[in-house]
Fold this protein.
Amino acid sequence: MPGFRVPTHDHVPPGSTARHGRFRRRPRPASRAALVVTLLAVTALAACGSEDGGGESLTLYSGRNEQLIAPLLEQFTAETGIDVDVRYGNTAQMAAQLLEEGDRSPADVFLAQDAGALGAVAKKGLFAPLPAEDLSAVPEGFRSTDGVWVGVTARSRVLVYNEAAVPEAELPASVFELTEPQWRGRLGVVPTNASFQAFVTAMTVLHGEDRAREFLAGLAANEPQIRDSNVAVLEEVDAGRLDAGLINHYYAGELAAERGVRPDELDARLHFFPGGDIGALVNVAGVGVLATAADDPEARAFVDYLLGPQAQRYFAERTFEYPVAAGVAGPAGLPALDELTAPDIDLDDLDDLEKTITLIQASGLTP
């Protein structure tokens, strides 16, 4: 499909294929009284149409991998009684599948890793408008301008650096400085990764294709260390085998948790580019309801749950992403989301990856 040539995602093991999963109905605890009230009509109708009194379900296409999202889906089913039939794949695969299926898709909800995929599906008219209360739950920049998808979490692009190899005084003020001679051979990049591609797409939107082409050519000429994943870049920076690399912020929290240490105990440090630099792009993972499920209360309940405090805390504490709904603290040890000086860009404009992939390939960063 044009624009979706299946970039790699660190949360999806390379070579993995789409999978199906199912979470069975569990008893509904009394502690979720408010959500239960919103589902009373659904429960009553299902009871009339099913011998066992159950039957609520929704079909989810998930561009977030099973290891990451399955525990949250289990919580959702336990607290609402709604079964979730899941098809897993990377976000590009799921978006391509939706575009191919159109209004014949069995999907009720699409949970995507990045805004570009959501924008691509939205521009084909496949999403239903979301209720105003869902849209108003997050800042304006983290939802679609036409109200058909909403961000669930946010992540910032950063420069990860080894503090022994890169003194703080030498940190670049702009990502464009990484093409200068002092960075030759020192930088790790993952040009096949969707987050890197979204960053280049954003650069094209804000600075034009010529500037993006010039940056990529300069980066390639500077002999960067090409890696297959952000995780590999982070681990090598932490071990001192690379001086620095371009990644998303949350990988440092994941690595620290895996090792049982605090993020500030790693030798790798995070540099958030200042002044609205394109290197500090803040993207979102988000959700949209398919038009064919516009009137399904189960789909609405799922979106509400993702924007609720329990799910938002899950993302902050388990995946180290920024929650986007008000009232939930971000990951410990990081600047608050509203303190980041991200570039001003409409995330809907990140949907066209075809030109980006062509630019990256032409630069020599990928085969």
Observations:
- The mean pLDDT is 87.
- The chain is about 35% helix and 15% strand.
- The first strand starts at residue 19 and ends at 23.
- The two ends are 20 Å apart (CA to CA).
